[in-house]
Every structure is written in C-alpha cells, then in structure tokens.
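ingest -> validate -> predict -> emit
validate: passed (alphabet ok, no gaps, 371 aa)
predict: started
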Amino acid sequence: MIVFLWCIYLLAAVARLLWWLFFRIKADTSRFSSHSNENTLSPSISIVVCAHNNCTGLQRLLPVLASQDYPLFEIIVVNDRSTDQTADWLNQVSISNLRVVTITATPDGWNPKKYALTQGIQSTQYPLLALTDSDCVPQSSRWLQHVAQQLTQPGIDIFLGYSPYKEQPSILNRIIQTETLFTALQYFSLANVGFTYMGVGRNLGYSKNFISKHLDAFPFYNHLGGDDDLLINQLSTGKDAATSTHPDSFVLTFPPEDFKSWWKQKRRHLSAGKLYKPFTKSLLGLYWLSASFFWFMFLVLLFLNTEKANTCLILAHLLFFGAGTVILYPIFRIFKSGRLLPLFLFWDFLYIASSSIIGFSTFLVKNKKWS
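emit:
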C-alpha cells in the first residue's frame, strides 16, 4: 500500500514539474514583439471602466488613464448604480476625453456587471477597446500602446494582459499573489499555443468588431462572474489572442484586504470556471489534479511513513521545489514576483489548499451579488 501511495506522489510531482516547464517555455512566448513600433499607425482606442461605489478608485485611476501616451483615445466610465460620491465627483472632474454612462437600474435577468459592461462598450466610438476596473492602475503611460500594438496584428481580436495585485505584508496577500501569478501563467501559456480560454477584465482588450456582434447574446449574461473569462471562453477561436509580458503592459490591482472579501471574490471566479467548455475544464482539471494530489499524497505519506521514510519524503519534497524554483525563476522575474521565491513551498501549499476548499464550497452555496 505504501509503495502504491509513493508512486502516486511521484507521478503527481513529475506531472507538476512538466506543467511548470510548459508554463516556463510558453508563458513568455509572446506571439508578437512586446515593444511598440513607433512607425506603425496608432488606431484610436476606447477605454471602458465599470464602477460601482468606488469613487476613491476612480480618483486614483482616471488621472493615470488621462495621461496615457497615445495619440487618440477616449475614456468611458460606466457609473453603475453608485450611491456614494461617484456621480458628484465625475460631474466635477476635468478630463476632456472622458464620457460618463450612468446606469440607474439593471434589467431583469441580467447580471449587473455584465449589463454595465455592455452599455459601456455600446457607447464607445473607436475601433479598439481596452478594459480595466476601477480598483486598478496601469503601471505605465505606455499601457495603451501595448494593448493597441497587439490588437492591430493580423487575425488578433483579443489582448490578454497581466494584472498583479499590489503587495502587502500579510499571508493572505502572498496567497493572492501566488494565485494571480499561476492563473496568468496558465492563460498566457495556453493562449500562446492557440488554446485561448480566458483573460482578466482588469487588463483586457478587444477589437470592437469582434465584441459588438456578440453583445446582444452575451454568454451567461445572468451569471454572477465571467464578464471576462466566460466571454472569451465561449467566443474565442483559440488563436485570436495575443499576450504581452512587457512591464509597461501590466495593470496593478488593489487586492481584498480581508479574508471574507477574498473568499467572496475567489468563489465568484471559480463558479465561472464551471461553465467553461468541456475541453478547457478537462485540461485545467488535469493540472489541478496533479497539484492537489501532490500535496494530498505528501500529507498522507507523512502520516503513514516511518521516521526514516519521512526523512526521504521531506528530502524528495525539497528537491522537487528546488527543481521547480530553477524552472520558474525566469518567470518570477518577468512577472515581478521574486518576493514569493524564498517561501515558494509554503505559499504553494496555502494556495492549493485554500483554492481547493473554496472550489468545493462553490458546489454548496451560490453567490448572490457581484459587489
């Protein structure tokens, strides 16, 4: 019996290393140059931001958007049923290319966030779209340049960007950082080999021709989550997306500061995953099985083994993470996540364990609200 459990553990360990090697090779294989070509024509672009009771976030975000180093763009803010100071502040702000769409009520059957997004997109006037959220801030004045550069490549209708969370000195923040990094590695690497399955609305771009024809039949328009990943999962051909790992294309997000807020956010994200296409769910399921079995079998063996066998087990575990660190080190540097490396083993365990628990909870209780 112990031998069989050891075999499962080693098989899961090898599978994880192979997945990480795949992420390492493919996540940074951008299909096009990450640097803007200043000799190419820069098409006009519309930025769409949906905001619900986040005046503070808009006050932080809009000046950064207004200062983007780009020839012609507009900013569309969708004020979605806000009851704070959002409307008053937007009426007073002086940004010439800002337009505000106000929503006072959501039609029956629609999820509020998805309805707000459709109204924002329908209000745009330019051929390219860049999406972000009110709790985000682009890390460079060249963000729009990177979005537009990818969307102007032949056959590309979707831009997938990276949106790390702001670092904070807490265990919860390290778990969030780890999850964000590995989620990005998954959707970047698969998009770069022609299996686009998701993106994050905090840093996302579309060609308007691609998205407009689908707005009237928004996939799962009454589902709580998935205004970004479900839309891409249902509509993408798999080979119509481009990514960028250039730091100027990153959009920083301000994370949940307490466990309850993060729990609700994570449940919303995982509940959307249940509606992915069968192939996508199978592929991601294989990755998750290798990760969860790796840690589960380690704990089982740690409980059942003799003291001498446990010494071998712990050494094997440390050797595995040593190899994983070597494989993933360049990726940690590219995505500016080097602070996770010293305790990578610890953060990985907490990430896998917490995500498994929250994922299981989505089958028991459904979310009711998006914010």
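DSSP finds twelve helices and nine strands in the chain.
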